[in-house]
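Much of the work behind modern protein science is quiet bookkeeping, done one molecule at a time. Below is the pair of lines this work produces for a single protein:

***
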Amino acid sequence: MADRPADTPAPDRPGPDRPRPDTPATTVSARDTNATTTTTTVLAVRDPAPPPPRPLDAIDQDILRILQADGRASIRSVAERVHVSRANAYARINRLVEDGVIRGFSARVDHERAGQGTSAYITLKIVQNTWRAVREQLRELPGAAHIALVGGDFDVLLLVHTPDNRALRELVLTRIQAIPQVLSTRTLLVFEEQDLEPRPPRS
């Protein structure tokens, strides 16, 4: 599926030599007690980083595999399969949620049977330092399933599910290419896809 060409931009990646365009700044002034001059320093204010997750042991990993395979598994069944008490399993799952290891519970959907028979990966080249703005606009697209900032020949990888090829074409040509920061796109149709099942926990 041919999309409009454009030059290849450098990927938008924050680094020591590239300040974040959407990072607020604060001004700190210090007065020299032996002089009448004031020195002003501008400090970048970054969002506080989340605390690092606590280490996971083999039981935690088994719990994750069980919940990946069946997000509706009961505490009792999880506890029995990993050979711990129900209270222990409950505490471990709560800790995994609090630490952000488990981000939520969802259903695995057969998109074709759900009326979204066309899937595609769309690669985007974008204007430098516009990743956050582009990401927020892509999140609003109907059928958008996964968005990633990547390195290589393009900057963004987007997975979408649509009812048919016509809907996919409209999505690319009238929605994605209308985003001002998007320089070019390339659409890769998915002929067949398979969700990989997590490995079963230890017996």
The chain has a mean pLDDT of 80. The longest helix spans residues 86-98. Strands lie at 25-31, 38-44, 118-126, 144-149, 156-162, 182-190. The helical segments are 58-69, 75-82, 86-98, 131-139, 165-176.
